[in-house]
Design brief:
Blueprint: H1 2-32, H2 38-55, H3 61-82, H4 92-114, E1 128-131, E2 134-137, H5 138-160, H6 162-172, H7 174-179, H8 184-206, H9 218-231, H10 236-256, H11 265-276
Antiparallel strand pairs: 1-2
Helix pairs in contact: 1-5, 1-6, 1-8, 1-9, 1-10, 2-3, 2-4, 2-8, 3-8, 5-6, 5-8, 6-8, 9-10, 9-11
């Protein structure tokens, strides 16, 4: 029983990371119809920014998160304004190829600037808390708490603010929203910046738990894309539930079945869901 609880907690931690990245991807994808693969590279760049903010600039951990969020949001905003906006209205294949190219470009730039050697961020919280017969580190609890807080803030932003309602309208019918006076350029810039900030937060939160290296964004990006599809476009709650659920499935499957297939369980779940509900578990049918 202790091992079961431990694996569930581990699954919630990694699922929180998937959910944070997927939340930004969901907003971007639902409006532009393009899965923004560049968020995976922003995840990597932000992790390095957080690492150097802590080790070189000697900033507190929370300050390093804020710095990384600003950098990630700025990169995503610039990519949207300088590249994705240029090809809006054309075939989505061009924007998709651009996103893939940005992902590989920025990931390889990380190798050029910081080499492929893993870097380890110093621990920012020491100590453990007893929970149901075993101990959980404070750092893992911070990941879960931060994810919950950010989801609450984004939900409030989407449902209660004027810009949030514009985002909802654009995700449902972009052409009609534009006819009603909504500036689609502004909406796109906001969701890209928001996605960059969320991916950056996830990167810095997990850096002390694992390590920082140029390919660290590959698997989180793929799993987050799976979460978006499972949760359904436009569903904040769906992304959270599916992100946490996917993390738990991976953790339990890796422990009780085989760790060799740990990264394949999410895609098995994806295929099963798509067979019976092509628009996702919480998507609009």
């Amino acid at each position: 029983m202790d091992y079961l609880v431990m694996q569930i907690i581990n699954g919630i931690v990694i699922g929180s990371v998937y959910a944070l990245i997927a939340l930004g991807l969901n907003l971007i994808w639902s409006i532009t119809d393009v899965p923004d693969f560049s968020q995976g590279a922003i995840y990597v760049i932000a992790a390095y920014v957080g690492f150097f903010a802590v080790t070189w600039a000697k900033l507190p951990f929370l300050a390093s998160i804020f710095v990384a969020m600003c950098v990630g949001a700025a990169i995503a905003f610039t990519c949207e304004k300088m590249l994705f906006r240029r090809w809006r209205g054309t075939t989505h294949h061009i924007q998709l190829l651009c996103a893939i190219a940005l992902f590989f470009l920025m990931s390889n730039l990380a190798v050029v600037f910081w080499t492929g050697k893993a870097k380890f961020m110093p621990s920012y919280l020491s100590g453990k808390i007893p929970l149901l017969g075993f101990y959980v580190t404070y750092e893992r609890l911070v990941v879960i708490a931060m994810a919950g807080i950010l989801f609450g803030l984004v939900y409030f932003f989407i449902t209660k603010t004027k810009m949030g309602k514009s985002i909802q309208a654009a995700s449902q019918d972009k052409e009609t929203a534009e006819m009603m006076g909504i500036n689609i350029d502004t909406v796109n810039s906001v969701v890209f910046a928001l996605g960059g900030a969320l991916s950056s937060t996830a990167a810095v939160l997990t850096a002390p738990l694992y390590s920082v290296y140029p390919t660290m964004g590959d698997l989180p990006l793929l799993k987050s894309l799976v979460v978006v599809i499972l949760g359904g476009f436009g569903s904040v709650g769906g992304v959270l539930v599916c992100g946490l659920g996917l993390g738990i499935v991976e953790s339990l499957g890796g422990f009780y079945i085989s760790s060799a297939y740990q990264h394949g369980y999410s895609f098995f779940v994806l295929i099963l869901v798509l067979l019976f509900r092509p628009k996702g578990l919480f998507g609009r049918m």
